[in-house]
């Protein structure tokens, strides 16, 4: 069975909680709600959550009782989401979230775990009722969405996707889709190959503008893999040729193989430095993935009688920068920790998420995905949960209204370009 360090927990809303049979609560008592999802969630937390001490500390039964009472007062699906999200937030633990199908992370998580659901039926009972048809697919435009203070921002644009073709940029705030309030799943659902008009704001307090996009149907996990592949390129600055690749997801060997293939392609361009971007997206990296920095592996070069050269080299052998931020989670933090400890590259950006426990995903009765922390994790004996990994070079960056500019990437390019120039001039290395 595959394992992953991905964090997320999803709920797909269908109806609000209904009052329990019998005409309501006893006189003077709180409202009591029968909600199968809450019931199953409570049972799974009591049975599988990694720390009984945490459950005791937060008084989990009281949190559940309070949630039941609140569900008796909700009037909208959105209010129900908030109640259940707040309940899980009370555990103060990563890999324990609550997301409706109306949010992008639901679809990405479901896609990442779909093979596990097939292999472990207990994690997705009544799969046909609780899970969308397999393989998981949705309509999207190739954007890593970020919700900040209730607004949706472009947190990343996948190279070659509909959003990139339409001209959306990192930091754009998307306000409307076809003149309706923007929601990144609802806006494109069942709209593949149809035009959707987005209203967006590029600068803080600036005027609204419009752009037309054509959503595609895609499998989220494969889209993340394709986005990594498409991101791999050579960037030039101050006379230096730098290799760049963005690891949007590191969940499993397939992603590692894709990364190694990208490194091998870029190495043929003989870059003077590397920028490995592990900001945002999903974790999942196993510790041995750090082998990409193993310089002792020989470089194999062969030439045929026509003079064609074939190079086999999937290692980073030149100075490197690894970009991190608060969206670098889980397995990516294992990588950041090891890279920093062994001085394999310079970490640039912001402290990682501090989301370092192991978890399992479970399908809920209403179509939810519960991703629940089920085991503690230490890295070389250290606990990174709640702490994260600090960068070597701190570069704060608020993506909102960035208009495509990336302060952290710029800092990485400056550092590597200066190092490459010094080396070319015969200065200290």
Q: Could you describe the 3D structure shown?
A:
- By secondary structure, the chain is of the alpha+beta class.
- Among the domains are: about 140-220, PDZ domain (Pdz3 Domain), CATH 2.30.42.10; about 220-355 and about 380-425, Alpha-Beta Complex (2-enoyl-CoA Hydratase, Chain A, domain 1).
- About 30% of the residues lie in helices and about 20% in strands.
- The chain has eleven helices and 20 strands.
- It has helices spanning about 35-50, 50-60, 60-70, 75-90, 105-120, 125-130, 160-165, 220-230, 255-265, 330-340, 405-425, and strands at about 20, 35, 140, 145-150, 150-155, 175, 180, 195-200, 210-215, 215-220, 235, 240-245, 275, 300-305, 310, 320-325, 345-350, 355-365, 370-375, 395.
- Strands 4, 5, 6, 7, 8 and 9 form a six-stranded antiparallel sheet that branches. A six-stranded mixed sheet has the order 11-12-13-16-17-20. A two-stranded antiparallel ribbon has the order 1-2.
- Helix 2 (about 50-60) crosses helix 3 (about 60-70).
- The two termini are about 45 Å apart.
- Mean pLDDT is about 90; it is low at about 1-30 and about 425-429.
- InterPro entries: ClpP/crotonase-like_dom_sf, PDZ, PDZ_sf, Tail-specific_protease.
- This is S41 family peptidase.
- It comes from Pendulispora brunnea.
- Pfam families: Peptidase_S41.
């Amino acid at each position: 069975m595959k394992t992953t360090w991905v964090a997320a927990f999803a709920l797909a809303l269908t109806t609000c909680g209904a009052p329990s049979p019998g005409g309501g609560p006893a006189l003077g008592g709180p409202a009591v709600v029968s909600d199968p999802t809450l019931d199953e969630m409570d049972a799974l937390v009591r049975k599988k959550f990694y720390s009984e001490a945490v459950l005791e500390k937060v008084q989990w039964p009281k949190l559940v009782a309070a949630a039941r009472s609140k569900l008796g007062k909700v009037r909208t699906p959105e209010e129900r989401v908030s109640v259940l999200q707040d309940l899980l937030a009370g555990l103060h633990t990563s890999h324990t979230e609550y997301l409706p199908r109306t949010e992008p992370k639901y679809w990405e998580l479901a896609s990442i775990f779909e093979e596990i659901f097939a292999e472990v039926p207990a994690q997705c009972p009544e799969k046909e009722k609780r899970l969308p048809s397999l393989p998981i697919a949705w309509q999207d435009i190739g954007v890593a969405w970020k919700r900040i203070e209730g607004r949706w921002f472009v947190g990343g644009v996948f190279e070659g996707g509909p959003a990139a073709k339409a001209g959306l940029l990192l930091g754009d705030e998307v306000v409307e889709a076809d003149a309706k309030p923007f929601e990144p799943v609802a806006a494109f659902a069942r709209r593949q190959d149809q035009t959707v008009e987005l209203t967006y704001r590029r600068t803080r307090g600036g005027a609204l503008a419009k752009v037309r996009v054509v959503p595609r149907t895609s499998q989220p996990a494969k889209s993340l893999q394709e986005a990594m592949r498409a991101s791999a390129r050579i960037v030039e600055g101050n006379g230096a040729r730098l290799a760049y690749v963005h690891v949007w997801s590191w969940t499993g060997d397939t992603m590692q193989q894709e990364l190694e293939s990208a490194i091998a392609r870029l190495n043929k361009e003989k870059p003077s430095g590397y920028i490995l971007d592990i900001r945002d997206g999903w974790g999942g990296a196993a510790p041995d993935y750090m082998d990409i920095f193993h310089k002792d592996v020989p470089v194999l070069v062969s030439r045929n009688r026509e003079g064609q050269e074939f190079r086999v080299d999937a290692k980073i052998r030149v100075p490197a920068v690894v970009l991190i931020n608060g969206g670098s989670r889980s397995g990516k933090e294992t990588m950041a920790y090891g890279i920093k400890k062994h001085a394999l590259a310079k970490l640039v950006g912001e402290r990682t998420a501090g989301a370092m426990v192991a978890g399992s995903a479970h399908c809920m009765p209403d179509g939810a995905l519960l991703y629940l922390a089920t085991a503690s994790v230490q890295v070389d004996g250290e606990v990174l949960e709640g702490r994260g990994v600090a960068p070597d070079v701190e570069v704060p960056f608020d993506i909102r209204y960035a208009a495509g500019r990336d302060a952290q990437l710029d800092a990485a390019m400056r550092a590597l370009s200066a190092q490459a120039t010094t080396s070319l001039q015969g200065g200290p290395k």
